[in-house]
Amino acid sequence: MKDIRYLKGVGPKRAGILAKIGISRIDDLFFYFPRKWEDRKLIKTRIPPGFAFLEPSVVFRGKVVSIKDVYTSTNLRIFRAVLAAGDAEIEALWYKRHNPRYDVFAGIRKLVAPGAEIWITGRPDDPLFNTKISVEEFYSCADTEAQALHINRIVPVYPITEGISSKFMRKAISEAIAERGEAVPEILPMSLAAGRGLMTRQQALTAIHFPESYFELLEARKRFIYEELFLMCVAWAIKRKQTKRIRKGYSYEIRKNLLTPFKENLKFEFTLSQKRAINRIFSDMQAPSPMARLLEGEVGSGKTVVAMCALLLAVENGYQGAFMAPTEILAEQHFITFEKFLKNMNVKFALLTSRIRSEERINIIEKVSKGGIDILIGTHAVIQDEVEFRNLRMIVIDEQHRFGVRQRAALRQKGEQADLLIMTATPIPRTLFLALYGDLDLSVLNEMPPGRTPVKTIMAEEEYAFAQVLKEVSGGRQAYAVYPVIEEGDLKGLKSVKKEFERLKKIFKGFKLDMIHGQMPGKEKKRIMEDFANRKTDILVSTSVIEVGIDVPNATVMVVNNAEQFGLASLHQLRGRVGRGNIESKCFLVADLKTPEARQRIEVICSISSGFELSEKDIYMRGAGDILGMRQHGDMELKIADIFADASVLRLAIEDRNAILKTDPRLLKPEHSELRKKLFELYSEKWNIIDLS
Ligand code: ADP
Ligand code: MG
User: N or C: which end of the chain has fewer CB within 10 A?
Assistant: First the structure.
């Protein structure tokens, strides 16, 4: 395919810059999608709803009446031109930093001279009147080519990089389309594209960069959003098939010499869903290919003991296991659980956190490398960075849905073909699971151990909620008070941790209050959480940092303030911090229900206690992105689609993928050859996907 250097207007220098943003061939330009679009039509209709990606922009065509250099007391220089068209008159302003060596406006002066007819576009400095415009781009009216590309139309705005402007990109892309647009292959099978009513790839290509109308833009976006999600879904399926083909080269035998005493130590029966999960895990472990399973279960559903069974099976067979928690406090809590449930058993396990220093640390690492420790408990960091295992076969990762395919692959390097169990309490909607964790199998703990009552979630006034808190703390229980922001003014009108902490100290006089938020150093946070866990504190005032925190069974009440600010996923995680013991717990939501959506959200969370039921609600998806950690996920380098906003498209893509792979699992049919090519081009390196043919 043709090198970008050979495109008109692109020299070696620009080619170098383009290469840095992943554009080395002419065809790469096509898929450098705009970040947004500007409506630069001279006569505009109102932009209809559903066009968040389209912005109106001020455009003016007129004759230069006068020009003037304005000097400011600072280094700033302003060039001002008055333009007139008919009865309308505006001031066009250019701002530049002064340079004593040359005239910074020289280029502008050449075109913007009295009498000249020009186009300008930019932002109004006086939005009410639109008479003072900060110019972003300007062109001579004689320049018809510029008009066709940059003015009086819907114009693409690209993500910019040093040395590359949107203006340049527009030109380069339009050259590229003229030169090679016709050669761009359709990659979706005809029947599929037609069935979903999608624009052809060639049409969409022109339309996404240079749409003739709002609706053409909409259709083009739809086409590429679908294409992107579809390719990703197919890639997942192939990745999964690949994992299934790996042979781990060792096997497990269920000996029960550890599992039986462990069961006796527990003093409770497994729930039905725990049994089911354990059975699935054991058969995965005995299968020839490595396990890759996600265990999803509400907070308190008993995931830890399930994971312990898996680890013990590995140890029974003479292998090592690792148990990784997201924070040190959680790792410490797990260690205590292991001490309790593995009492009097011949299993050697150790905790490795940053608190364990020097000699002991060296000792543990040494033992792990020699096989003297069966199970190592710690945070991801510890296990990933320093430790070499002798024969690590079972890796458990707790509370980690933010664990992308790349991290999984990196981990695999460590434990070679180890079995992997990832656990999360965050309910993930079925569609998302399929889209994001296509290479994992899923087990769900959908029931709670007996004797648990679900947390009651109640909408309340602050006064009432605080009265309940007072009742609980007076009875020796503990409480959480959650606020959306750390500091007043972080977001207007919202209550802040810092300010409310002071107020609450007065309201709850005689009790011990503490404060925790994300801007505190890690050590400080740790101490505060520990004090709370050890009952040194009665009320913990916090931001949502306590979301994935620790187990404090004595905490029985939570008040979430400005609850309307939190998404469903967050609210559900937050309330899971209480109700961890046997005492009935309550979560009060103090909310300002200004929007219908906020009202709906609060109603839903109050009436549904099951996270899985919750996750299937459409409003759960909105705002779930942050909590599910998609931004950090690393797999989601989507250029145009948004898996949350475009969830409905995702559903269709999964459906279509399944249908296609059913008839042609390796994409060997001729009508799938372009699809196949594109797929490997996009994903083979990124996800280490190999060609299966
Ligand atoms: P999570 O799924 O949130 O990690 P845990 O594994 O911490 O939940 O379990 C919560 C509590 O329930 C623990 O104290 C655990 O010992 C207990 N537990 C787990 N399974 C059962 C069961 N089948 N019956 C009774 N208690 C159980
Ligand atoms: Mg847990």
Answer: C
Indicate if the pLDDT at residue 123 is higher than 50.
yes
Cα 303 to ligand 2 centre (Å): 6
Token code pair at residue 481: 């008070």
Atom of ligand 1 lying closest to residue 271 CA: 23
Ligand 1 centre distance from Cα of residue 683 (Å): 40
Closest-CA residue, ligand 1 atom 9, reads 302
Confidence of residue 38 (pLDDT cuts 50, 70, 90): very high
| pLDDT of 633 | 45
Q: How far apart are CA 421 and CA 477, in angstroms?
A: 35
Asked if 512 and 571 count as a contact pair (C-beta separation under 8 A), the reply is no
Q: Which residue has the tokens 């039986």?
A: 260
Where do the H-state alpha helices sit in 77-165? 106-111, 144-150
**Cα-Cα-Cα-Cα dihedral sign, residues 124, 125, 131, 135:** negative
Q: What is the pLDDT of residues 396-431, one digit of tens each?
A: 998 765 556 566 666 666 656 889 999 988 777 777
Q: What 8-state DSSP symbol labels residue 454?
A: P
Q: What is the arithmetic mean of pLDDT over 540-569?
A: 86
Determine the average pLDDT of the residues in 504-528. Answer: 92
299 lines ligand 1 (CB under 6 A): yes
Q: What is the three-class DSSP state of 575?
A: helix
Average pLDDT for 33-58: 86
Ligand approaching nearest to the C-alpha of 549: 2
Per-residue model confidence (pLDDT) at position 585: 93
Domains of the chain and CATH, by start = 1-41+160-183 (no CATH), 42-152 (2.40.50.140), 259-287+300-424 (3.40.50.300), 456-608 (3.40.50.300)
Min mean pLDDT across 86-95, 283-292, 446-455, 545-554 is at: 545-554
- Atom of ligand 1 lying closest to residue 301 CA: 2
> Which helix (H) or strand (E) covers residue 154, if one does?
strand 154-157
Q: Which mutation among 305, 323, 377, 612 tests ligand 1's pocket best, with the greatest number of atoms within 8 A of CB?
A: 305
Question: Cβ(303) to ligand 1 under 6 A?
Answer: yes
Answer yes or no: is pLDDT of 631 > 50.
Answer: no
How long is the chain? 693
Residue with tokens 């409770």: 268
Q: How far apart are CA 415 and CA 423, in angstroms?
A: 18
